[in-house]
Specification:
This protein is mainly alpha-helical and about 325 residues long. It is about 70% helix and about 0% strand. Helix 3 (about 90-125) crosses helix 12, helix 10 runs antiparallel to helix 13 and helix 12 (about 275-285) runs antiparallel to helix 13 (about 290-319). Mean pLDDT is about 85; it is low at about 1-10 and about 15-25.
């Protein structure tokens, strides 16, 4: 075996120090430029999110009211009352939390399954696919006040269009869509799904576009049918997107306010009064802002736990 040739010229290697200096010289400037572009968002985020969150945490340990000259510090009493049976806020708070849980359990699966099937359908090359996307997404651009008022007239028990159309085809025409359970829940879930399914469908459709066609071709060569491709290729490829859609849908459902406030007014009784409705009533109508802030942070803690569990489950499935 031939040894090294002492006469061979040495290969010049650029010094690492010089290369690192070149790399570091532009870093502060690039970082400063990035923060300059982020500054407007960070300022608005601090004013409208961070500052109110800190202020809410402060007043949650007081008996804060805009009609009091001095606000007394009461420690964790507002939080203790929420977990003490017989207190002023205990029963109504947990009843509204239960109503929120019912709505979330009923609406989230529907708002995941229907948009997913719709996205799979629109992902195929069908005639008028672009028009269908626009039609399904159009309701989402409307505000909840518009949606609520329109559907309140449609679902009215006495003079609603829906009951009138049901009567024309020989079906019961006096269904209490907004004044009795379980019809009130059917109305709230149905209106919410109609309103928001376009958004979830568009997000899922974008995720479908990112799945390589080679995976479907390989599955076809292995003899997989449409259903097998869906469960073996489509769903695994959509896992990151499904995590995002699932989390945002749960959070949106748990914070539902406008639909119940306009359609059912929390009725019958308080059956459909969500926790956001109760918090707003305590904080704005009753001026009990200390207790309302404590309720808000309890709701935040519950949603944070649910989000972490969702992330853990999705990650374990991916592994």
């Amino acid at each position: 075996m031939a040894g090294p040739n002492p006469a061979a010229p040495a290969v010049a290697v650029p010094p690492a120090r010089r290369r690192s200096r070149v790399g570091k010289s532009g870093a502060p400037r690039r970082t400063g430029t990035a923060y300059l572009f982020l500054a407007p968002f960070l300022i608005l985020f601090g004013i409208f999110v961070i500052a109110p969150a800190i202020f809410g945490l402060v007043i949650s340990v007081t008996d804060w009211s805009p009609y009091k000259a001095e606000q007394a510090f009461i420690g964790l009493q507002n939080y203790i009352d929420l977990f003490t049976p017989g207190s002023i806020t205990f029963g109504d708070f947990w009843q509204s939390m239960g109503a929120t849980g019912i709505f979330t359990l009923l609406s989230v699966p529907v708002m995941l399954v229907i948009p997913l099937l719709l996205a799979v359908l629109l992902n195929n090359k069908i005639k008028g696919g672009t028009a269908f996307r626009a039609i399904f997404f159009a309701p989402y651009v409307l505000g909840v006040a518009v949606i609520g008022v329109v559907w309140r007239y449609v679902l009215d028990t006495q003079s609603g269009i829906l009951n009138y159309l049901l009567g024309l085809v020989g079906l019961p025409s006096d269904l209490p869509w907004t004044v009795d359970v379980p019809w009130a829940w059917v109305s709230l879930v149905g209106v919410t799904v109609w309103w928001t399914l376009g958004f979830n469908a568009v997000i899922l459709l974008a995720g479908l576009k990112g799945i390589s066609a080679d995976l479907y071709e390989a599955a076809s060569l292995d003899g997989a049918g449409a259903i097998r491709k869906f469960f073996s290729v489509t769903l695994p490829g959509l896992r990151p997107v499904m995590l995002f859609v699932t989390t945002t849908t749960i959070l949106a459902s748990a914070n539902m306010f406008g639909q119940s406030f306009i359609l059912t007014k929390g009725g019958p009784g308080n059956a459909t009064r969500t926790v956001i409705m109760y918090i707003s009533d305590q904080g704005l109508a009753q001026s009990n802002m200390g207790a309302a802030s404590a309720m808000s942070y309890i709701l935040f803690a519950v949603l944070a736990i649910i989000s972490v569990i969702n992330f853990r489950l999705q990650r374990e499935r991916a592994e």
